[in-house]
Sequence to fold (112 residues):
Amino acid sequence: MELEAFELVLLRKPQDAPSYPEDVLQRIQDEHLAYHARLREAGDIVTKGPVSDQPDGSLRGLTFYQTGSLAHARQIAGADPAVRAGRLAVEILRWYCPPSTMGQPGRTVSLP
Fold:
């Protein structure tokens, strides 16, 4: 069976995440989003987004990389401004799916 491989990055809020003033948190978030947009434009990220209604409140989002290397995925995930600031921690694993299924249109929703 042929499968397409991705690096699935789980973004978690660490228990010991440092506190920052609200303006610094907003700057970190803006930098985090801009960094991910650049990675997507470069072709390293296939899709990404926040999660909700999860049983584990530390899980903040998922990112699907397609770099071909767990080491490279760890490197670029570690360079995320929110990770560098200690606001997010990453877990990375290899994920497989049938070829071309990541590009199929899905249902869209608006987040609060």
In short: The chain has three helices and four strands. Residues 83 and 97 are 27 Å apart (CA to CA). The chain has one domain: 20-100.
